[in-house]
Write a structure and sequence with these properties.
Layout (H helix, E strand, L loop, with lengths): L25 H16 L8 H25 L8 H18 L10 H8 L9 H4 L1
Helix pairs in contact: 1-2, 2-3
Length: 132
């Protein structure tokens, strides 16, 4: 016997990350800061597609893992590091970075900035031909 599920009554719940607090790990703070910085570099969170947002989080996660592995190397604990995994993470970051772009994008101007850019600039100098 089959049952019918009314999918209209079910609501999708948005997962909200808890705010950063004093108990957040250093890796969590590093990841969140990297996500914010990349979002700003790409023009702000409001101007990103969902795919771009997910790529940014994936890039930041890979960067956090790579940062941890690099710290392990610096501490001389290279015997515990899988170098092929290290290379794979670096390669993944390169591919994601090429999709996102590596140049900063200007955020869109506010309405006031846009209107100011449309107004003609006053002419300070007068041509000699028109003065004569």
């Amino acid at each position: 016997m089959t049952s019918v599920v009314d999918i209209k009554t079910k609501r999708a719940k948005r997962i909200v990350r808890p705010p950063l607090g004093p108990s957040t790990s250093g890796a969590g703070r590093f990841l969140d800061k990297m996500v914010r910085d990349i979002e700003l570099d790409l023009g702000g969170r409001r101007h990103l597609t969902r795919i771009q947002s997910e790529l940014i989080r994936a890039f930041a996660g890979a960067a956090t893992s790579l940062q941890y592995l690099t710290a392990q190397l610096c501490l001389g604990e290279s015997s515990e590091i899988d170098l092929s995994g290290y290379a794979t993470i670096a390669s993944t970051m390169l591919r994601i970075g090429s999709k996102l772009g590596v140049r900063k994008q200007k955020p869109e101007p506010s309405a006031d900035e846009y209107l100011d850019s449309l107004s003609p600039e006053p002419e300070d100098s007068i041509d000699e031909d028109s003065a004569a």
